[in-house]
Amino acid sequence: MIIDAHAHCDVRFGWIHTPEVLFGIMAEGGIDKACITGLADIPGDDDEAYPRFVAALRSDPERIAAGYLRINPWYGNRARDLFIRSVREDGIRGLKLHPTTIILPPNAPAVIEFVRLAGELRVPVLFHSGDEPNALPLQIGKCAEACPDTDIIMGHMGGTFFWEDALRVAQKYPNVYLEPSGNPLPDIIQKAVRAVGAERVVFGTDMPAIHPKVERYKLDHAGLTPDQKELVCSRNIARLMGLKLNSNR
Ligand SMILES: [Zn+2]
Questions:
Q1: Residues 108-157: pLDDT tens digits?
Q2: Number of domains composing the chain
Q3: How many whole angstroms from 128 Cα to the centroid of ligand 1?
Q4: What CATH number is associated with residue 227?
Q5: Does a structural domain hold residue 11?
Q6: Are 143 and 115 a contacting pair, CB within 8 Å?
């Protein structure tokens, strides 16, 4: 069973990532289930973004395992109320924060407030991280320190140049999980597993922006034991998102 912990499903900014497009790419890449997020930060200029995301989430419960709501903390209580409602009423199981598009670093008070709230609601936070000044692993580390009761998935684990910081941050904070999509090193999954153990590494692709075959190559050449692979590919994200797994392979 391979669950993609970081996939996008939305129609926005000229991208056409409908569920149907996603399912085609999943089949090509051998992905069984995806945890999706959108492309728009909500609330924002697109009133349809939220219903569109909920509809995508419900389009195929077999292939779409769960969703992270992409929130814009600048909207304060409006964003807070929507996030709470999404978890309690609409089945959202995670929070996605993209520090570059919301123009707030992960350790900004407004961001920390939402990360803490996610912990209170018992859902994980998927952060975009990478080489941008607002999305650095050390900043995510400060946020993780301020929110010890929230599970934080570091998407892209620091991008091309900051993966060593990502390893250090995850070694220091037990609530940080590493997701290696987009990092070009072919042995990045091995490095992550060696640094923090297979229990804190989750497989993700960032599809359709990155084709899952690229990330599958990294996974299939990571030299993981069957037990480690099961944790990285399904068990960890299933535990983080409260998913029930009925089958294994
Ligand atoms: Zn992404």
A1: 999 999 999 999 999 999 999 999 999 999 999 999 999 999 999 999 99
A2: 1
A3: 6
A4: 3.20.20.140
A5: yes
A6: yes
Distance 31 CA to ligand 1 centre (A): 16
- Assess if residue 139 is contained within a domain: yes
Q: Would you place residue 245 in the very low, low, confident or very high pLDDT band (cuts 50, 70, 90)? A: confident
Q: How far is the CA of 174 from the centre of ligand 1 (A)?
A: 22
**Predicted confidence (pLDDT) per residue in 35-93, tens digit:** 999 999 999 999 999 999 999 999 999 999 999 999 999 999 999 999 999 999 999 99
Q: Is residue 88 part of a domain?
A: yes
Q: Strands (DSSP E) along the chain, which ranges?
A: 3-8, 10-12, 15-17, 33-37, 64-70, 94-97, 125-128, 152-155, 176-179
Q: How remote is the CA of residue 245 from the centroid of ligand 1, in Å?
A: 24
Please check whether residue 246 lies inside any domain of the structure: no
CA of 172 to the centre of ligand 1 (A): 24
Task: Determine the structural domain holding residue 21 and report its residue range.
Answer: 3-241
96 Cα: distance to centroid of ligand 1 (angstroms): 9
What is the widest separation between alpha-carbon atoms in the chain?
46
Other CB atoms within 10 A of residue 31 CB = 25
